[in-house]
Design goal:
The protein is built from ten helices and 15 strands. It is α/β, with parallel strands linked by helices. Bound molecules: NADP nicotinamide-adenine-dinucleotide phosphate.
């Protein structure tokens, strides 16, 4: 009998990295789609930093993954059975389909993707949710203007790499913050950022000052902690901070300290605004269209870090995000 291998959350993780014991990996029987439903054979699962927050019970922008439930994830695959008028067998789709081999869906929230334009893993990466986050977060929240200086942290990753390249398209000076010489080389030499700063090399403040001689107008913040504190002191008057992520705190075992330099928000009249990509759900087609056009024109370089091992590898591979071991968008092949 055909089965569906699934990763289920069975315990709320203790502070720190995910543990294997937080999950159970089980074979369920394969279900047929009902009327108005489809079944998707999943090919790739997107591993996203937000997963560490989705399993906690604290107040957030989505409900926590329930204990005993399939782990939430953006996944992409091919429709292999359909009783839905808008989806045919063979369509490629992506959406919140979970960490499993097959998903049954009523189609709500799914996006059809064109595999002649990009491989399936890219549709959960630079052309998928992380790309939409970069696009809307930078343009609608950061509001960069030509000639301004944009600083982005976690610059070599899924979101950061797109933020920097979009800011370049908009005529900005772009500085990326990343961990280690190889990631820094990647953002300048391969992605075309104007400068990079290695936060692991020490004296972040003076490195940043050298890279941003005219101060910082827009900060697209993915990391928080010391990086945000250092940036705050170099922001220009009326600068904008698009607060996209705080990954340095996601696996912290003690509550991270608040920004020490929050006073800069007052003295420099900064706007610091949080963003959640779900808020632009009704404009996703615009992001897909624009990112797809830039990608086809060769203006966006996108890379995936495609990991093998199927859904069984999920509990180990997801932790690569919080140790910085990924190089590009982290995706698990199913
Ligand atoms: N608000 C939204 O709607 C939304 C949507 C998607 C993503 N996000 C956020 O965007 C950020 C980036 O996500 P992504 O998917 O693009 O991941 P990613 O950048 O591809 O991977 C995560 C990277 O974060 C960096 N990192 C991890 N721990 C760190 C630490 N303690 N200090 C400094 N850097 C650290 C590492 O890069 P280095 O090796 O360079 O340190 C790591 O490779 C995350 O904060 C995520 O939560 C937000």
């Amino acid at each position: 009998m055909a089965t569906n291998r699934q990763v289920k959350l069975i315990a709320r993780p203790k502070p720190g990295l995910f543990a294997r014991e937080d999950f159970s990996i089980e074979d369920a029987s394969l279900t047929e789609p009902g009327a108005g439903e489809i079944r998707v054979k999943i090919e790739v699962v997107s591993l996203d930093p937000a997963m560490r927050g989705w399993v906690n019970e604290s107040k957030s922008y989505v409900k926590p993954v329930p204990l005993g439930g399939v782990m939430r994830a953006y996944s992409a695959g091919i429709v292999d059975a359909s009783s839905h008028p808008s989806f045919a067998v063979g369509d490629a789709v992506q959406g919140l389909l979970g960490v499993q081999q097959y998903a049954v869906s009523n189609g709500k929230g799914l996006v059809k993707v064109d595999l002649t334009k990009a491989p399936i893993e890219r549709w959960v990466g630079g052309l998928g949710m992380p790309g939409w986050t970069a696009y809307f977060g930078l343009l609608d929240v950061g509001e960069p203007k030509e000639g301004e200086t944009v600083v982005v942290s976690a610059a070599s990753g899924a979101v950061g790499s797109l933020v920097g390249q979009i800011a370049k398209i908009k005529g900005c000076r772009v500085v990326g913050i990343a961990g280690g010489p190889e990631k820094c080389r990647y953002v300048t030499e391969e992605l075309g950022f104007d400068a990079s700063v290695d936060y692991k090399a020490g004296d972040l403040a003076s490195q940043l000052k050298t890279a941003c001689p005219n101060g910082i107008d827009v900060n697209f913040e993915n990391v928080g902690g010391d990086i945000l504190d250092t940036i705050l002191l170099q922001m220009n008057v009326h600068g904008r901070i698009a607060l996209c992520g705080l990954i340095s705190g996601y696996t912290a075992t003690e509550a991270p300290p608040g920004p020490k330099n929050i006073r800069a928000v007052l003295t420099q009249r900064l706007r610091m605004q949080g963003l959640i990509v779900f808020d632009w759900a009704d404009r996703i087609p615009e992001a897909i269209e624009q990112l797809g056009t830039w990608h086809a024109e060769g203006l966006l370089k996108i890379r995936e870090d495609l990991q093998q091992g199927g859904v069984d590898a999920f509990p180990d591979v997801v932790n690569m995000l919080y140790t910085g071991s990924n190089n590009g968008k982290l995706v698990l092949k199913v």
